[in-house]
Amino acid sequence: MSVADLAVKVFNGLFLSGLNAATSQNEINNKRINIIVSVCNTSNSIFPKVMQHMVINIPDDKDTNIIQHLDSGTQFINDAHTSGNPVLVHCEQGISRNVTLVVAYLMKYLLNGKLVDELLDMIRKMRSQAKCVWGNSVPNSSFYAQLDLYEDMGMVLDPISEPYKIDNLGKDPESVKAGNLELDPNETLICYN
């Protein structure tokens, strides 16, 4: 297994990785991971058996509205993490989508008061110490902007808040004005037990 295939601990019981580590039975067993959060387009059938598995089925591109998944994703991680279960959050490359979700989780539940940039630096340092080839991970520019917006909203998605209306993430202005936030059925959150 190469260094890029490892799950890296960013906080006690919280790991980040790409798809290779998430689908490695050895890596899951070695880290005693019980819960996986997949933030990518993937099939559940390729993963090792774990207690719970959440899938947030979204692509890594500038048009993806990841903010709509941050409340439920961070809540899922928090529920697992606070019950003492090691959690692995991954996307395909381990660079953008999973980092976005973990930064939102850290801001909201563990390191209140830390800013997006501080948390990204912390994650980069952890990965650098593990000598990961993807140590310079960073959310894509749209996800980064959505993390800033999430922070401005107090880490709670509020589609009728002024910051959300101003940013509006490319939505129809009337829909944003009314506070309508519709989940794309192709991005459904799925939990497996």
Write the layout of secondary structure elements.
Layout: E1 8-11, E2 14-17, H1 19-22, H2 25-30, E3 35-38, E4 52-56, H3 70-82, E5 87-90, H4 97-110, H5 116-129, H6 141-152, H7 162-167, H8 173-178, E6 189-192
Parallel strand pairs: 2-5, 3-4, 3-5
Antiparallel strand pairs: 1-2, 4-6
Helix pairs in contact: 3-4, 4-5, 4-6
Keywords, please?
alpha/beta; Protein-Tyrosine Phosphatase, Chain A; Dual-sp_phosphatase_cat-dom; protein tyrosine/serine/threonine phosphatase activity; Tyr_Pase_cat; TYR_PHOSPHATASE_DUAL_dom; 193 residues; hydrolase
Structure in words:
The chain is α/β, with parallel strands linked by helices. It has a single domain (8-173), classed as Protein-Tyrosine Phosphatase, Chain A, CATH 3.90.190. Helices cover 39% and strands 13% of the residues. It has eight helices and six strands, in the order E-E-H-H-E-E-H-E-H-H-H-H-H-E. The protein has helices spanning 19-22, 25-30, 70-82, 97-110, 116-129, 141-152, 162-167, 173-178; strands spanning 8-11, 14-17, 35-38, 52-56, 87-90, 189-192. The protein has a six-stranded mixed beta sheet with strand order 1-2-5-3-4-6. Strand 1 (8-11) and strand 2 form a beta hairpin. Helix 3 (70-82) crosses helix 4 (97-110). The two termini are 28 Å apart. The model is unreliable at 130-135 and 172-183 (pLDDT under 50). Residues 64-127 form the Tyrosine specific protein phosphatases domain. Keywords: Hydrolase, Protein phosphatase. It holds the Pfam family DSPc. Belongs to the protein-tyrosine phosphatase family. Non-receptor class dual specificity subfamily. It comes from Jimgerdemannia flammicorona.
